[in-house]
Amino acid sequence: MAPSRHAILFHGSLIRGRASSIDEWKMFFGVSPNVILFLWWLCGFDQDPNVTVERLLWALLFIKVYGTEPVLGGLTGVTRKTYRKWVWYILPLIAAAKPDVVSCLLSSDIFVFDSHISQIAWRNRFRNDKGRTCLTTVDCFDLKIHEQLTAAQSSKSKNRRRNKRDKSGHQITCDLRWYSQKHRGPGVKYEVAVCIQTGDIVWFRGPFPCGQWSDKKIFTNKLIHCLDDDREEMVEADGHYTGYPFHIRMPKDYLSESDKVAKAIARARHETVNRKITSFGVMSHTFRHPLSKHKVCADAVAVCVQSAIECGEKPFQVNY
Fold this sequence. Notes:
- This is DDE Tnp4 domain-containing protein.
- With 320 residues, this protein is of the alpha/beta class.
- The chain has two domains: 5-96; 119-288, no CATH class.
- It has eleven helices and eight strands.
- The protein is globular.
């Protein structure tokens, strides 16, 4: 049985106190109560007796705040062991829903589902298709992690990176395979594609070691092969994606001033979507859990952000 909005607000108030606005609620859980209702249906939690509203909120609190277990356990009033158990039980269930979020209409606490599967599906780039060559914007972002070294590798790595500097002249202090130019330390990349006409996330892939994978290399590894050659499909991207004039339109590739403005707005909207994803603490803070769990957390965040878009919390629209 699905929870009511009142039940979600009640259990949320036990964790964060009485919030005066949805923005304050999102500071704790990342998404609004309506989106939590959507996630409940999406992930089939009504069929799982182990999942309660309270435990779902624990998982959302974890990826949004990304505090330590003693702190989050104290907020939720349970032991570290109990908190850890249910967070890592629920997060993989949310992450597994990445290809399966369905479009819905909201009316109070009632969901009306249609049969169109929509979440993070590459085919959704055709929504509201106007016949343009470019259907999506593509970009990558870097996330901070702890250095991925064993004790045996540590001394060799220090020797290998001695006196190494990045393109900006900064000393490299981690294994070159993981080095992120943005964060000046170890990191991983994720690739995101956003539908230009709707603002939906239609592609989310990673993680990739920052030092070994450039934005362009990630794109040419898979996404370039998913473009529709019959319609000569291309993507909009920034200046990092050089060398593929038949697949990528960069900022300088415009036909008129109005085209230049439209391209810039589309890229700016993509950055807005990226910021929605990286506003979750598990994405913005240095990831301190095993790297094998990074994708679970990142996919869960992507599901939450796209679910919010499905529920009407869309980024600004683009006239392209």
